[in-house]
Design a protein that fits this description.
Mean pLDDT of chain B: 88
Number of helices of chain B: 4
CATH topology of chain A: Helix Hairpins
Shape of chain A: flat
Order of helices and strands of chain B: HHHH
Number of domains of chain A: 1
Strand content of chain B: under 5%
Low-confidence stretches of chain A: none
Shape of chain B: elongated
CATH architecture of chain A: Orthogonal Bundle
Structural class of chain A: mainly alpha
Oligomer: heterodimer
Number of domains of chain B: 1
Radius of gyration of chain A: 15 Å
Structural class of chain B: mainly alpha
CATH class of chain A: Mainly Alpha
Distance between the termini of chain B: 57 Å
Helix content of chain A: over 70%
Strand content of chain A: under 5%
Number of strands of chain A: 0
């Protein structure tokens, strides 16, 4: 039962990542793509956290801290770019 | 038993993250989508971090996971707010269902 839940969690995270990636590809406006990329980064962090919990591998934890900060820096950068250049995709 | 509880919490968190992904496609424009991307995924990530923290015994590992949780709660809403503000200032096209207050738009432009 525990294993089923673990696989279910990883599968749901995978589907969420694909959905976020589709939003980056299909876009709409440029902010939509940024939002999709932001969500993708979050799903990635959630996936690494889940993998760390399932395998009990502590090396994942350091990567988790880094990816959270990098994702925020990236979002700030692109948001400033959108603010100056307009929202055309 | 602890393993099962931890796996259950992680599965619930993954379900919330999946809902955030679905919301990105169900809603019509950035200002609606930011709700799905900003709130559901934060809760999902927090639940998965809690589920993972249950399985680690050492204090240092749990502290690292707590650090990520604190960073996530601070940075994710701030990041999504930045995207929404940039979208508003760049005059992104709105969906038909979205309406806004003309007065507040004028006041915003004066700042």
């Amino acid at each position: 039962m525990t294993e089923v839940l673990e696989y279910a969690a990883l599968t749901m995270l995978g589907v969420a990542g694909v959905l976020a990636l589709l939003r980056v590809g299909r876009g709409g406006s440029l902010p939509d793509k940024v939002l999709g990329a932001d969500t993708l980064m979050l799903v990635l962090a959630a996936g690494i956290a889940a993998a760390a919990g399932i395998t009990r591998e502590t090396a994942f934890l350091d990567a988790l801290v880094v990816i959270t900060m990098l994702g925020f820096a990236g979002t700030i950068t692109v948001a400033r770019y959108v603010e100056r250049r307009g929202a055309r995709a | 038993m602890t393993d099962f509880i931890s796996a259950a919490i992680m599965a619930i968190g993954a379900a919330f993250t999946l809902l955030a992904g679905v919301g990105l496609h169900r809603f019509d424009d950035v200002f609606a989508r930011m709700h799905a991307a900003g709130k559901a995924s934060t809760l999902g990530l927090l639940l998965i971090l809690i589920g993972a923290a249950i399985r680690f015994a050492e204090l240092g590992d749990i502290l690292k996971l707590s650090l990520v949780a604190v960073l996530a709660v601070i940075t994710i809403p701030a990041g999504v707010h930045l995207i929404a503000r940039a979208a508003w200032r760049a005059r992104t096209e709105l969906a038909e269902a979205t309406s806004f207050d003309e007065d507040s738009r004028r006041r915003f432009d004066e700042i």
